[in-house]
Specification:
This protein has 126 residues and is mainly beta. The chain has one domain (1-116). Helices cover 0% and strands 33% of the residues. The two termini are 18 Å apart.
């Protein structure tokens, strides 16, 4: 498991063959991937508790704390999804997980994009 994972915002769908270099990632305007430790302090257990060891075959977790990206200093365009990577460097690393947002979000100059607690859900199919 990587010591840090990074949440990346994308403007087009990712796929199983996507890498950190090939995803359609937001660029410019103060954008930066957001690092989150893959610890039980930052992610709910698969039982849905705020922390603790995951067990069983549920395979679903949510963020425990708000994940906030820098305030944009230029238009980022329409964010359609996320990729969770093993590198905090934009356009680098491996894509560990990816998915579409429930609703696309236009991020304009001066906006701040964030995932409130429990808004970013990751499901591993067993």
């Amino acid at each position: 498991m990587p010591a840090t994972i990074a949440i990346a915002l994308v403007t087009a769908a990712s796929s199983d063959s996507s890498t950190g270099a090939t995803i359609s990632e937001v660029t410019g305007g103060s954008y930066a991937r957001q690092a989150v430790s893959p610890s039980t302090a930052n992610w709910q257990s698969t039982q849905g508790t705020a922390s603790g060891v995951s067990t069983g075959t549920g395979g679903s977790t949510n963020n425990n704390a708000t994940i906030t990206f820098p305030t944009s200093t230029a238009d980022w365009g329409t964010v359609t999804g996320v990729a969770i990577c093993d590198s905090t460097t934009t356009a680098a690393g491996n894509v560990l997980f990816y998915g579409a947002l429930t609703a696309n979000k236009v991020v304009s100059n001066g906006d701040t994009f964030s995932f409130q607690s429990s808004q970013l859900s990751v499901q591993i199919d067993n």
